[in-house]
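> Could you send the N-alpha-acetyltransferase 15, NatA auxiliary subunit prediction when you get a chance?

Sure thing. Input:
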Amino acid sequence: MPSSNPLPPKENALFKRILKSYEHKQYKNGLKFAKQILSNPKFQEHGETLAMKGLTLNCLGRKEEAYEYVRRGLRNDLKSHVCWHVYGLLQRSDKKYDEAIKCYRNALKWDKDNIQILRDLSLLQIQMRDLEGYRDTRYQLLMLRPTQRASWIGYAMSFHLLEDYKNALSILDTFLDQQLKHATADYEHSELLLYQNLVIQESGDLQFALNHLDIYSAQIVDKLTLKENLAELNLKQSNYNLSARIYEELINRNPENTMYYEKLIKAKQLTTEEDILDFYLKYAEKYPRAMPPKRLPLNYATGEQFKNLVDKYMRKALSKGVPPLFVDLRSLYKNAEKVRIIEDLILSYVDSLKKCSKYSESKNGPKEPASAILWVYYFLAQHYDYLKQTDKALHYIETAIEHTPTLIELFVTKGRIYKHAGNPIEAYRCLDEAQAMDTADRYINSKCAKYMLRANLIKEAEDICAKFTREGVSAMENLNEMQCMWFQTECALAYQRLGKYGDALKKCHEVDRHFSEIIEDQFDFHTYCMRKMTLRSYVGLLRLEDVLRGHPFYFKAAKCAIEVYLHLFDVPLKDESAEQELNTGESRTFKLPTFVPDITQKLIAFVGFPTKKGITHLHLSPYISDVAPLAFILLPWLKRVIKRRCQGLG
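Output:
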């Protein structure tokens, strides 16, 4: 649609050069051309030129001027789709997505078939999960560009996300019917077929999904995914023989995948302990280097059979010196009988190795390496630590350190034992000693920093981390830049324990900002995935982002911040200087995080808060924003807190 206030040819040519300069990021040139138009008294209030100048200024970081020019442009030309589109782009750059959507809709009133505005609108709608609006916008794009693949895929996906599988499949079928038959394998076409099969599976028609894979198997390039889907679908449809054959092929391809063995047991309909153990024995002989056929039988075996199997398994690992042996067997500790058997065996190893350097005095054969008893001590220390027998755990780890005082893993485990015993200071000292043995090991460095934070040694933890952060930037700043959330959550908890509530809240706010940035990063994939046809991964990304704030890091940060706010409610700040200290955190200007007060208020509004005067509500901060989902995650925890406080009030 032409502008409601068109320019003469000369000025129109300059305006086109402004657009080209913006597209090529030549912002200074764009400002120069805008100045040439606006310097003419006849066009000094030309709306679209003013709007484009504002957009260019925004790209140069001059936001206040940008908004001033764009609003001025809108006032002079309210019927211009360009002005409304530019205003929407400004709102989007400030993450005001609802306002940006309104601007795009206003722009479409004056140019309803503008492809670029429709695309920008669809991006915001999928970002905000306005799925009905997204479906309608994708339909308009399909009507305007019916020959483009992305138009069809986007429209089909909108129905898929709305769980309208029938329409999604109908659109995909129509699109595929229009495509040329693929004589050779094509990755993008293959991904489209696998995506179509995903939609069929989610619709619940498993037999149709199975038939679909059989028909198009020659055109699917990803043979691993094809076989996994065929095996799973045949298993669900009770085609056990066919499913078993495919899982056997998959195990032959990758004998280290534990899921394949579990699925094959289901396909072979093995239910008794004896049959399952025979099954694993067969595969242990067939794949002697594979670990799952040796480890997985321990989950099923009992009594004397378990003793024989675990004895053989542990001896081999201890002789080779496998540090994570205990972690590997830890899942068996849910069974008290298996714990007793493992303990008896490992203690017998100690006695025999001391006497004859063998695991059993009664057996002939070569002696075990000198390191074998070291790994037995190491295992026993972890074993007793898990059973909360701290004295025995410390005895064996000290014995191991006396045997080999240069092994870093021993000091790490010693620190972990002290941590579990509730002594963070001694735990940190052990990790500090381990870190000093190998200053180039980043993992040990990070572990040491974490234990320092648990001991409330924040400055020392920052100094330790500085060994692996970028030069010329403070460690805290670089860790924040790298979204190192384990450090920031532990740091927040340390500040909370020290009573530095402003700094604690600041760290919680940083964690919240990281999650917001992760959500923002979706924008890069909305168009990329449509173009590259990575559709299954894209749907997985969207579903992950929907539950992102249920992540443990976010939960820990929010829980810490809510505890701080509840403490401030119970023990209010007494003077303005203390309040200023809270808000600034060592004299640095800091605005309290928006998400925590909001969640706390929502929770308190729902369950109430008991005081001696009755049920009351919190009014924690003027900075309130709507981020409710975490409220439901934290609700059970807060209810328990409130119940305890109720009991305390008598």
